[in-house]
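Worked Example 4.2. Consider the chain below.
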Amino acid sequence: MLFADRNDAGRRLAVALSEYKAKDCVVLALPRGGVPIAAIVADAIGAPLDLLLVRKIGATQNPELAIGAIVDGAKPVVVRNQRILRLTGTTDAAFDRTAARELAEIERRRLLYMKGRSPLDVKGKTVIVIDDGIATGATMQVALKSLRDRGASELVVASPVASQDALETLAEDADRIVCLASPEDFSGVGAFYQDFSQLEDEDVIALLAGRRTRPQPNTQPRT
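Applying the procedure from the previous section yields the following structure tokens:
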């Protein structure tokens, strides 16, 4: 399956999640790439949209390879991919240095995107967590662990595309996974989009504006 862009992926994902329309749920996006998709889904099902600030911790020799992930919070949650750590020979000191840099980037984004606002309360709610694609599952895994700690009652992972390995990894932490495509030959998220342009901070801020309160559900997904 090939998506024209994130808007196309968002419209298709909104259809797959239509059963959540007008239910008491919260849509959380992993920025930046997950935000335009999550905005379309949130509008379509009538749910508030917020961000979950989580960062991949990449290997020194290959930053795209996740050796772990870290998520913002009163006590940051860190997940280590022990198998990849062993394969890459990453030391604890090297991991900690990279994790510190990513935590600093999370703090920068929190100040810029949230502007002092507290995250939406997820306690007792169904939470739909959205990204534009899932390669290893490390980033999404740490996101789910943090939301479970915050009291979410049901965790739904939603993504246009994911690797089969990632889906297996996340099955233990998610109550449900909605994924439109999980090809055997997974070469990277961007390979499944005709337009996979990088989003800027300003794009995230604009998409989040006005969507933290519950909108009226649309009969058609937002274009």
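The first helix runs from residue 6 to 16. The domain at 6-53+116-208 is CATH 3.40.50.2020 (Rossmann fold). Compare this with Example 4.1 before moving on.
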